[in-house]
Fold this protein.
Amino acid sequence: MNTIAVLASTRGTDLQAIIDATEAGSLDAQVVVVVSNKECPALERARSHGIPAVRIDAKGKEREAYDREVAAVIDSYHAGLILCIGYMRILSPWFVSTYRNRVMNIHPSLLPAYAGQMDLDLHAAVLERGCTVTGASLIFIDEGADTGPIISQQAVEVAPDDTAESLKGKVQRAEQELLLEAIPLYFAGRLIVQGGKVAR
């Protein structure tokens, strides 16, 4: 079985798309656990589909110590792939090294543009700058902030009447398409990192 652990801190809209695809049989994988640093809608989504939902409080913990707790949970469910979906924490170098090229992060821009920014603030910045095109990027995590090898990207047109909220919705649809395309490629062994780039 192709097993996935999800790290999330927010609504988990992209998580829902993955769950729906696995339940429909269009994605040959299983989300085996969802982990969060706080109570959030993503955990509720997991529970509503019978997926283990684990909250690990990060308060007062060093980053690596916290990540080791998260890793223990991931390993207990034998997850082959780790997805960061709206996960509002920077992963420790220890975690990145331990799961090198096994952790994917979805980012709501065409990296390297707007690296380090997130959610509505990012989309508002795109609109303020007058961009006509934005998009989504799927990367493997490395030690930097949104600097890992790019797996895939998808462009999204910015309409004259877009708001930060409407743009977020359009970009999220692109995010979901990228994830649903890349997950089978990962489990088929077709996403190979060479020289800091992903070869298929």
About this structure: The beta strands are 3-8, 30-36, 53-55, 81-85, 103-107, 133-140, 150-157, 192-194, 197-199. The chain has a mean pLDDT of 96. The radius of gyration is 16 Å. Residues 1-99 form a domain with the Rossmann fold fold (CATH 3.40.50.170).
